[in-house]
Design goal:
Layout: E1 8-12, E2 16-20, H1 31-34, H2 40-46, H3 49-57, E3 61-66, E4 70-77, E5 80-85, E6 97-102, E7 106-110, E8 118-122, E9 126-130, E10 136-141, E11 145-152, E12 155-160, E13 163-168, E14 172-176, H4 186-194, E15 206-207, E16 210-211, H5 213-223, H6 232-238, E17 240-241, E18 252-256, E19 264-272, E20 275-278, E21 287-290, H7 295-299, E22 300-305, H8 307-311
Antiparallel strand pairs: 1-4, 1-7, 2-3, 4-5, 5-6, 8-11, 8-14, 9-10, 11-12, 12-13, 15-16, 17-22, 18-19, 18-22, 19-20, 20-21
Helix pairs in contact: 4-5
Domain NlpC/P60: 183-313
Pfam families: NLPC_P60, SH3_YKFC_2nd
Family: Belongs to the peptidase C40 family.
């Protein structure tokens, strides 16, 4: 067990940190994804279909963390930390999603520095964190959130694991940390998701460098003020059930093997007009498809709604 004092907080210190199944899960070819700094573009571009799909088939990757995302360290082993991620609810651990992250990708910060009045969320696909003089420091993903120090002209000064940094006003939304992002409609979930049509699927992906199916659902809900579980199975269990004949845009649809009677394996957004917006599988990009006549039509096993449930509270 690693000591974690009350006034200190462990946060992610790279653009995207992958949460691995074990300290031995990462391969030599995954090096750009386990260093500090990372180069997620280089890592994803270097993977072949076979080495990419192996991240899933060989049970190597669990999830991902964005820059500044807090973790709780429960154990250390060599140069690795076992963490749980409080912002990613999971039935695997009541404290948050569990897995292993290279120790060098985490950093301790003063908890008070992380508890500012306002928070900035990246709403562009990606944006460069800048130094005070405007130099590019780190390319950040959509929905990276950082504590706001102050807003200066056309930039927001934020706390980062590496000290103060700057983000362009146009690329972020600033919101009260105590309230969270404003809750939006199901149509807004779809509108945000449409921006990513064509983005390649990435197993375990939780960033705009590549999402998996449930990571895509999680991120679009996060962008619209809703925290939902990280995995598709948990997303199906936690939401408000919706009859298929009452589906509305922004609802989640779930799919199981054996024509809906087997293991749940996929989630997508109901788009409207009998269509689905989803991140399908390795080798394919986020797409909008007609459900009629597809395997998904036969595999549909549940539908849930988060946006309405949250608005009714």
């Amino acid at each position: 067990m690693t000591n974690q004092t009350f006034d200190q907080l462990w946060v992610t210190a790279v653009q995207v940190a992958t949460v691995w199944t074990s300290p031995t899960s990462a391969r030599t070819l995954d090096t750009p994804g386990i260093t500090n700094p990372t180069n997620i573009d280089k890592w994803i571009d270097s993977l072949t279909y076979e080495t990419n799909v192996a991240l899933c088939d060989e049970n190597r990757v669990q999830s991902q963390l964005l820059y500044g995302e807090a973790v709780i360290i429960t154990e250390t082993k060599d140069d690795w930390a076992h963490v749980v991620v409080p912002t990613q609810p999971s039935k695997k651990d009541g404290r948050g999603y569990p897995g292993w992250v290279p120790m060098q990708q985490l950093k301790q910060v003063n908890q008070q520095d992380w508890q500012t009045e306002n928070t900035a969320a990246v709403v562009d696909d990606k944006v460069w964190l800048e130094s005070e003089n405007g130099n590019n420091v780190l390319k950040l993903s959509y929905m990276t959130t950082l504590p706001v120090i102050e807003q200066i002209d056309d930039r927001v000064k934020v706390n980062t694991p590496h000290g103060a940094g700057f983000l362009p006003n146009s690329a972020v939304t600033v919101f009260p940390a105590s309230k969270g992002l404003e809750k939006q409609s199901g149509h807004k979930l779809i509108e945000d998701g449409e921006r990513y049509v064509g983005l390649d699927y990435f197993w375990g992906g939780m960033s705009s460098f590549g999402y998996d199916c449930s990571g895509f659902a999680y991120a679009m809900h996060k962008a619209n003020g809703y925290q939902i579980p990280r995995d598709a199975g948990d997303q199906a269990d936690a939401g408000e059930r919706v009859p298929y004949d009452q589906l509305l845009p922004g609802d989640l649809m779930f799919f199981a093997y054996e024509e809906g009677k087997g293991k749940l394996h996929h989630v997508g957004f109901y788009y409207g007009d009998g269509k689905m917006l989803h991140s399908p599988q390795t080798g394919k990009g986020i797409e909008i498809i007609n459900l009629s006549g597809t395997v998904y039509e036969k595999e549909l096993c549940a539908a849930t709604r988060y946006w309405q449930k949250a608005e009714e509270k």
